[in-house]
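Allow me, if you will, to draw on your knowledge of protein folds for a short while. I am sending you one protein, given as its amino acid sequence and as whole-number tokens for its backbone shapes. Kindly check, if you would, that the fold set down in the tokens agrees with what the sequence suggests. The record follows directly beneath this note:
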Amino acid sequence: SVFEELDFRAGGGAAVLLGIIAHVAEAGTAPDTEVGLYARYLELFIRRDWKPAERALSDPEVAARAAIASRLAWYMAIGAEAQQAPTTWRTTVTLAEAFAAIPDHTVELHELAQHAGLLVPVGSPDTPLQQSLRWVHRTFHEYLAAVHLAQQLGRGDTGALSVVTNAIQQPSGWLKTLQYLMQLLPPQGRDAVVEAIIELRDAGDPG
């Protein structure tokens, strides 16, 4: 099980996952994969399962906000360079930058920033739009970026595959996202990533 595989020597990520397992298990049967746990936890978190039923969000509303969160995570991971995988991710984004990156969902972004709890404020800006935000924990950023990347690969986006091959060459900043990605992809998608890795290996082997 995921619980049996936790390595508490690895730092905060294991402790975060343990908290996720506890919260998800309290709400019902916990999935047995790490990505399944994150998906279920985010669903509960965005739905505001601790609030009265009449104030909870509907399934479509939860799905829409999760999709927006993954788009923001991807923007913070990769910026505007669609076929690159930078070694250093952005850890913060201002509300103004988030609005500019995803202009069709400013209301939902504001809600994610102000009420959902997935993004936490950093510093004291002069204006609300200049408020810097960061994910409540890096693993949420990594998981949500993997969700967006898996969706792109599922649509046959060749640029997304370029990001993967680029990320493989600098795994220090992308290792956890690549691990999540392989769990999220169906067999055909995993095969495409493995083929890209083999091509990358062969291209670097002169013999």
Summary: Confidence is low (pLDDT under 50) at residues 1-11. The longest helix spans residues 59-78.
